[in-house]
Amino acid sequence: MNDKIDVFFDTLKRLTAEYIPKLGGAIIVLIVGIWLINRVSFLMTKGMQRRQFDVSLQSFLSSVFKVLLKVLLVVTVAGMLGIQTTSFVAILGAAGLAVGLALQGSLSNFAGGVLTLIFKPYKVGDTIEAQGQKGTVQEIQIFNTILLSGDNRTIILPNGAVSNNTIINYSRYGNLRVDMLLLLDAMADVQLAKKLALDACHSSTDALKNPEPFVLFNRLVNDDIELVVSAYADPLSTGFVKDTVQYEIKNRFLEAGVQFAKNKIIVENQA
Questions:
Q1: What does the pLDDT read at residue 97?
Q2: pTM of the model
Q3: Neighbouring residues of 139: CB distance < 8 A, sequence distance ≥ 6
Q4: What's the CATH number where 208 sits?
Q5: Among residues 154, 169, 184, which one ends one of the domains?
Q6: Helix, strand, coil % (nearest 5) of the chain?
Q7: Mean per-residue pLDDT for 71-80?
């Protein structure tokens, strides 16, 4: 009986001597690791704030980053305690692969949303054209971008498709130039036509006064004369500028006797 007790205590001493240092080291690594994760996450959030990342993206990336680091920390601590982590890591990898395959489309949209929020090819309030749709950006979500079209339709675009295709941002550099082509009769007074067209631009309440509109001789079309009338407008007002300027030009030309070629006016946006 005494021999069994002695063996028990010898085994306990041996296990204590073997595992206490490992346990102490694991606890220290766990405490220091948690502190470092929180510190790095804090610095990461500050960096994103300085770069003016979207608030929702800051929170999401910070949470994902902390979860991944904590999983890595737990695996490291378990390994220090002598726990076999190979199977654990394999299970995590298999689960991640299965989830990735099941959510392939959603992950593509998620990645597109993250890229959009980081690199900002457009922002809320911009007028853009993507995937054959045009509208004003109302909201940039993790998976979708919400547009409001000119006829008040809500358009939901998946971020994956948007980020992998051409995006036209009409608001990136502010105002747009609207070009209108006028085809005049060969005998028309070009100088008078240019003056009247410029006056029509100035009279439009939708056309901007700065930058100033201008009218240039463009080319000869057979025996007719082509002028280009250029006015600047807010991205949401280009259609109104075309309408009002075209109407004023037609009325002023009729009053002054300036003839269009074949009595037609050609209006075209080349911006």
A1: 62
A2: 0.56
A3: 124, 145, 146
A4: 3.30.70.100
A5: 169
A6: 55, 20, 25
A7: 79
